[in-house]
Amino acid sequence: MGKLENKIAIVTGAAQGMGESHARTLLKEGAKVVITDLNSTKGKALAEELGENVLFVKQDVTKEEEWKKVISETESTFGPINILVNNAGISFNKTFEECTLDDYMKIVNINQVSVFLGMKYVQPSMAKANGGSIINISSINGIVGGAVGYTDSKFAVRGITKAGALEFSKDNIRVNSIHPGVVETPMVTEGDSYEIVKEYAKTIPLGRMAKPQDISDLVLFLASEDSRYSTGSEFIVDGGITAQ
Hints:
CATH topology: Rossmann fold
Oligomer: single chain
Protein name: 3-alpha-hydroxysteroid dehydrogenase
Keywords: Oxidoreductase
GO molecular function: oxidoreductase activity
Number of helices: 8
CATH superfamily: NAD(P)-binding Rossmann-like Domain
Pfam families: adh_short_C2
Helix content: 40-55%
Shape: globular
Distance between the termini: 40 Å
Family: Belongs to the short-chain dehydrogenases/reductases (SDR) family.
């Protein structure tokens, strides 16, 4: 029996990359998983591949009505929700001078507002399930500085995690954040700066970029009873970058 037998999970931004890895890991451990993404082609294909215990729902995570739809479809298909992985996010590397207000609000809405909406609308469902685990994917740039917009939004994820942990504890809902370093996902490997990133990876104390599974194993820990006394905490998985 898996660690998540009969649990119901939602993973956002799950059509590829880290989100796909998280979804596969939760499914393998016995959960029924709803994967959401704007990329319906990849999302539907992944759900079809993974089988009857996976449902794809197209979602813009910045839209309140679409969060309501995701919660409703999850409950009607599988039942009350036990696990939410707020994984969807974007990054850019612009200076203050280059960053327009539209740029700024786009990254804030996707990286920060979506987490607020997910937490807000999943709480009643988790309360019906007598508890649950919310896992917010932040970044090491929610711990240390980086580019404007991205850093700000990832620090905010760290903050709302702590606020949610305090408020939701009455319903036996735990809320924690994960702070990855450099992860070898399509966003990195297919980008223009991949060669630069590979050189940077040589300076990481453990000598390599993270694989998506390195993050997914921590997601599994936080989703399961193994972390039953952890809430309001940040978990850094960066190969030692922030220790330098």
